């Protein structure tokens, strides 16, 4: 599973999202979540991303709780929570096993997405962990200077501005550096090459065929039998 090309993994991610939307029984959605966990386990990414999985479970719990407060039944709450998990767990597999440059290459070469848009998408993904690390570093630096983000919600928001301002300045500086680097490397040139090939191989075509067939079967069963 780990050695599949990015296009196969993208198709699996999209197919899983479609299955999660079509399934409407808690049991089938739970099986889908178990399948995704097995995929993570086979790819040696399950135990590396336990924290992310726990955060997703907490978010799913609150999503189900909101559904229950809004008047939903227990089944509807379970379906909402499991559907969210079914649509998001697979993204951990995608982002953990695919290098961002390979993801960009697959979007440009196979999916025919314009390079500028593909680069913007992957660049956004690349800077999320960096932004989180900078947020942590700035918050720790301000704590060392005696900043305590305590009190009621309004006071917490006002005090957290001491973290937001330097964080935004560092982000702007990073953006300017990145823009200059892209300009020096000829970003926007009409000719574009990639270092490694991300073309599908035999096993990839088998997986893609299975994903498409299963997706068609699920849609057909839902339309014909309402299952």
TrEMBL record:
Task: Name the membrane topology term.
Answer: Multi-pass membrane protein
InterPro entries from the xrefs?
Answer: ABC/ECF_trnsptr_transmembrane
Q: What is the superkingdom listed in this entry's lineage?
A: Bacteria
Locations listed in the record: Membrane
Transmembrane intervals: 29-47, 53-70, 77-96, 205-225
Of the GO CC terms on this record, one is: plasma membrane
Keyword list, A-Z:
Membrane, Transmembrane, Transmembrane helix
- Mind telling me which Pfam families this protein's record contains? CbiQ
Full protein name: Cobalt transport protein
* Taxonomic source organism: Dialister invisus DSM 15470
